[in-house]
């Protein structure tokens, strides 16, 4: 459970450890914990409080990898976040520095499986995206 997320044939396996007395027929399999490197953090923003804010923006912050602090010189931190897999994944966030300058921090998802860059959701690729069904001839630009 702790070393996940797990996948089979490029499809995400969502696991849940049942608690005593929990009804397995009503368990919702919507949440997965991901380790995430966050890139392009401005110098001076590599703190656990910033990691918690970014983790809660992405999903629900779980943990800050203090052993990855050596990546700070590359402006990278690593966090563990619980994500609702029914929602699109977030790829970046704008941060405004004290001097008024705007920068974007980028999110990566470790051990990510089948992912659609059109709608941002897990479980299918661009070829099978419902968005493509509605606008089949449109050219898409990825940001």
TrEMBL record:
| Residues forming coiled coils | none
**Domain of life of the source:** Eukaryota
| Domain Zinc knuckle CX2CX4HX4C positions | 84-130
For this protein, the record's InterPro entries field holds: At4g02000-like, Zn_knuckle_CX2CX4HX4C, Znf_CCHC_sf
> Which is an annotated GO molecular function term of this record?
zinc ion binding
Q: What protein is this chain from?
A: Zinc knuckle CX2CX4HX4C domain-containing protein
- What lineage is this protein's organism placed in? Eukaryota, Viridiplantae, Streptophyta, Embryophyta, Tracheophyta
């Amino acid at each position: 459970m702790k070393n996940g997320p797990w996948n089979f044939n490029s499809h995400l396996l969502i696991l849940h450890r049942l608690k005593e007395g929990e009804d397995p027929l009503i368990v919702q399999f919507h949440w997965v914990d991901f380790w995430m490197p966050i890139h392009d953090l401005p110098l001076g923003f590599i703190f656990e409080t910033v990691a918690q804010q970014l983790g809660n923006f992405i999903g629900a912050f779980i943990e800050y990898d203090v052993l990855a602090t050596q990546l700070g010189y590359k402006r990278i931190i690593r966090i563990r976040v619980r994500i609702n897999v029914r929602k699109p994944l977030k790829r970046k966030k704008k941060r405004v520095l004290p001097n008024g300058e705007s920068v974007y921090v980028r999110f990566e998802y470790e051990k990510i499986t089948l992912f659609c860059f059109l709608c941002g959701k897990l479980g299918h690729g661009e070829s099978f995206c419902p968005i493509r069904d509605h606008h089949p001839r449109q050219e898409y630009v990825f940001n």
